[in-house]
Amino acid sequence: MAIVKGLAAIIGVAAILMGGLWALQGLDIVRWPASSFMLGDPEWTRNGAVLAGAGVLLLWFAGRR
């Protein structure tokens, strides 16, 4: 079970970071890469927030005893 929780923590952190990037690109705050189709698109703001939320849930699961 420790392996599963470790993997959940790693995937959770990756999901939070990726979701944050997507949300910031959707809000047009982070303009990297400059030719990204996600820039200024509210759909990617929502997708990023959902992915980051899933990452938080995975971290919560990984931290439970």
Structural class: mainly alpha
The topology string of helices and strands comes to HH
Continuous helix count: 2
Largest sheet report: none
The fraction of residues in strands falls at under 5%
Shape: elongated
Q: How widely separated are the two ends?
A: 10 Å
Radius of gyration: 14 Å
Helix content estimate = over 70%
Mean pLDDT: 94
Total discrete domains: 1
Number of strands: 0
Sequence stretches where pLDDT stays below 50 over 5 or more residues:
none
Overview of the structural elements:
The protein starts with a helix and ends with a helix. Helices cover 72% and strands 0% of the residues. The longest helix is centred in the first third of the chain and has 25 residues, at 2-26. The chain is mainly alpha-helical. Helix 1 (2-26) runs antiparallel to helix 2. It has helices at residues 2-26, 42-63. The chain crosses the membrane at residues 7-24, 44-62.
Quick recap:
This protein is mostly helical and 65 residues long. The chain contains two helices and no strands. The protein is elongated.
Descriptive terms for the model:
65 residues; mainly alpha; 72% helix
List the helices and strands and how they pair.
Layout: H1 2-26, H2 42-63
Helix pairs in contact: 1-2
